[in-house]
Amino acid sequence: MATVLAIPATRAATFAAMSAALTGFKPDFIAPPVDPNQLHAHLLHHIDELAGTTSVDQLLAQFTVLQAHGQTSQQIADVMLGISPSSHAPAAQLAQSIVKLWYLGSWYPPGSTSAFDGNVVSSQAYVGGLAWRAMQAHAMGDSPFKFGDWTSAPPSLAEFGADVPEHKS
Amino acid sequence: MTLQTQYDVVIVGGGVAGSIIALELGKQGKRVLILNAGIAVPDNRGEYVENFYLANAKTPESPYPPLERALDHPPVSSTDPGLPGTEATPRPTIMGLSNWTNASLSYLVQPAPDPRNAPKNLPFSSTYERTGGGTTWHWLGASLRLLPHDLTMYSTYGVFGKFADWPITYEELQADYGSAEAEIGVSASVAEQAPLEQAIGLTYPPGYQYPLDSIPFTMVDQVVDAGIKGMSILDDGKNYAVFVSPTPAGRNSQPYQGRRQCAGNTSCMPICPIQAKWDATVSLNHALDTGNVTVINQAVVRTVQVDSSGRISGVEYLRWSKQTGLDPRMPPPPQTAQGTMYVLAAHAMENAKLLLNSKTPSLPNGVANSSDQVGRNLMDHVLYLSWALAPEGKPVFPFRGPLTTAGIESLRDGDFRRHRSAFRIEIGNEGWNVPVGDPWVTVNDFINGTNNSRLNPMTPPGRPLPATSPKYGGASLVRALNAVMTRQFRLGCLLEQSPMSTNRITPHPTLTDGLGIPRPKIDYSFDEYTLNGFRAARKTCSAIYQHMGATEFTDFSGRKGQPGYFEIDWTPYKFFGAGHVVGTHRMGSDKTQSVVDGNQQSHDHQNLWIVGSGSFPTVATPNPTLTIAALAFRTSRSILSALGA
Predict the structure, then answer these.
(1) CB nearest to B263's CB, from A21, A114, A147
(2) Which of B544, B560, B576 lies at the terminal end of a domain, its last residue?
């Protein structure tokens, strides 16, 4: 984990803020104030290795500018992921790979369109995958719940960390 | 070299049957040797769980050695290590099945499909493990009993002349089912199973209770249960009730024998991270605790030896030290283990392979094979999968709880078995994981703006896919995924396959594993009886979805060329393996038509028992593990009796 600690805190914090906007999960879920796991720093370390720090820094700079212009999280996600047409394609593809990494724990090469192209970067990334939380569940093989919890509706999406209005299912 | 020790019983294989027989014999003070082909049972399962987390393809085999990582990342060259021709204990895998006609990647050697004569030359699609504890490492835990009619298919239904009666009755198995349910720790309630007595003839001895309370329904079960209330289907002029029953499960509803209560990890396959689900390593440990059982690991039995009087005189095995990169021309020196009695418990496929590989000039058909039935009647539960979205406003919240907790058992018997397969319907709690590859496929679709799952936008089969699909990010992505993923569920029909003597495993004449042992060559097809079962399964599942207001998405039209794809009535189908390999050394009372008797004792060799699901003359519809375990208790008594205990 020494390499993770070597990432400057401000860069990791910017990455966490950007990740929150791109994934639709709350900033304090992506990087909790007390966070022994440091999943965001762990993922950033992998992304730096896989995509190169220069590309990552460009993406972080784009996020900082959009944020400074008062864009909402959803507007930032739409621009950076190429949903709004203004984004630069290679940057949008890298942003998509980062969202997939957060959701599935696997690295998909930027531009990949196959669901079977991914490589799991770590067990921590797999069990922390947001896809499971987006459906109010848990990674297969890593249940935080107990016997019989499955008989009734799970906690709300917001309680799973999603940045959506609170409402009980 | 011959081992100095003379054992009472030598057992080949330490899975369900081998472990339970070792336990029963060890308890009676008999000296038992188990030869386990794979590595020792690990001290803790953490490493296997980590393998699963790290696997890109989270297949049943993914946690277990030899790891298939080499096949995970195409392209694969024919010189890559980890291939079946260079491994000590290769086994069929899903990754191998994806390359099923390529014998350098698939352990089972299977012929290419015959497009002029479909569905012939189908890929045998089930997998198994060759390690201590066997395939129960990734069994589902479904602990269903056979039905009385399952043991009398020939005399009750007389279908197609191919079905054989079992030489034992359901009544004779009742007590052994009780022993098996106690050993496994089955969670179920006799009262909840009671409606199945009238529907399909399932009975229990008076006053019988399962050892553990039943597992409560998941939300998927609840929605299906409520949605099909009062439903029935018509077949050949008769009405059959369709209703949901809790599945008796080999997983703990409360702590049992030192193991924990199920926490709903939704990964019974490929691995329960907390061992709340029983597996054969539990019984293997109990066997070792008797102090009378010895295990030799990494010992692959190559041949069974027979003396001039027709008794088994030893088994020859190869001890390996390195799993991959072996040269099959240079096997390790053979060793011999000897006992008074011998048990082959190596798996239906491996038992047949071993017997057939043991041929000599005086036994040209191989050992225990005067009937020529060894290796024949290879069967599986062929699995018909269908999938749907639950009605809007009725989310089922999959991926919480065990992989399955209930099923539709009421269609497992009926007069329709004269002309088509019966089936049980397993209600799946893992969304579209198996049929579609979710959550990976739908998550990628929603980020990429593609539509491989037909959910982006929602386009049920039969409707043309829109030219473009939206992309999502941020909170919109969460909401879009949540709206569809929480409604995903699937039904799996386990179809009974009719026995066919032409469906068989034989040793391949030239292709071997890394120890130089001939590998299984497979011939496998479906007959009209099984195809009729597919037609009925499809119709029944669609009727269920319609009755409950679910939107069905089952569609195999884009899967031509994939293993298990076939067409009937110009309709595309795909079958999956259930891992329930059956029939290769079937039991019977007629020694010209069967390999073992009702005690799983060889007709040909008095001191040999050949055990496991290979002994089943019919596959019927229940998952086989409980019956393998029950028969192991029966066989233990037979061996003890032969030993003069």
Answers:
(1) A147
(2) B576
In a shared domain, residues B363 and B414? no
Would you kindly state where each structural domain of chain A is located, as residue ranges? 2-160
Query: How far from B174 is each of B141, B205, B253, B634, CA to CA, in Å?
Result: 19, 7, 23, 11
**Which chain B residues touch A142 with a CB distance below 8 Å?**
53, 265, 273
Question: Which residues of A fall within a CB distance of 8 Å from B439?
Answer: 103-104, 131-132, 135
ipTM of the complex: 0.96
- Sorting pLDDT into bands at 50, 70 and 90, what band is B409? very high
What residues does B571 pair with on adjacent strands? B568
Which tens digit of pLDDT belongs to each residue from A55-107? 999 999 999 999 999 999 999 999 999 998 766 789 999 999 999 999 999 99
Cα Rg, chain A, nearest whole Å: 16
- Across the interface, of A115, A142, A150, the residue whose CB is closest to B401 is A150
d(CA B264, CA B367): 45
* Domain stops at, among B576, B602, B636: B576
The DSSP code sequence of B159-190 is: GGGT----SS-HHHHHHHHHHHHHHHT-B--H
* CB-based contact B437 A116, cutoff 8 Å: yes
Claim to verify: residue B148 and residue B239 sit in the same structural domain: no
Instruction: Name the A residues in 141-160 with CB < 8 Å from any B CB.
Output: 141-143, 145-154, 157
Nearest residue in B to A19, CA atom: B474
Domain residues for the domain of B261 are: 1-191+251-379+503-525+581-645
In this prediction the pTM is 0.96
Answer yes or no: do B324 and B394 share one domain.
Answer: no
| Contact with chain B for residue A63, Cβ under 8 A | no
